[in-house]
Amino acid sequence: NAQTYYRQASLVLDPARTEIRYNSEWCDPLGARGMIQLAAKYTVARMMERDDFTKRFRSGIPISVHEFLYPLMQGYDSVALKSDLELGGTDQKFNL
User: Fold this and answer.
1) Whose CA is closest to 92, among 77, 75, 80?
2) Inter-residue contact 89 to 35 (CB < 8 Å)
3) pTM here?
């Protein structure tokens, strides 16, 4: 997948000026303890601000715990990268 994304990005970005990073650089050292500490900074109420979670909850469609952790980790990516600019889909509004 990473190579496919790189090829696609290279169509609009200069490969010589593009840095590719893998979140394993900062997620692996985080470990279970760090993940729990990160998760402790957020509430389920805050996570439920996402429209897709609210709609599913109201419809009785299950939401798994890992689905709450995913946007948290995406947000952590942003912090680790110290990004000046980020692009993302509407499903990423919570963590951009």
Assistant:
1) 75
2) no
3) 0.73
Q: Contact, 70 vs 42, CB < 8 A? A: no
Give residue limits of the domains in the chain.
22-92
The mean pLDDT value of the chain amounts to 88
Q: Which ranges constitute the DSSP H helices of 1-96?
A: 2-9, 24-39, 44-47, 51-58, 65-81
Q: How far apart are CA 92 and CA 75, in angstroms?
A: 9
47 contacts 71 by C-beta, under 8 angstroms: yes
CA-closest candidate to residue 49, choices 71, 75, 79, 19: 71
Distance, CA of 24 to CA of 37 (rounded, Å): 18
Q: pLDDT class for 89, splitting at 50, 70, 90?
A: confident
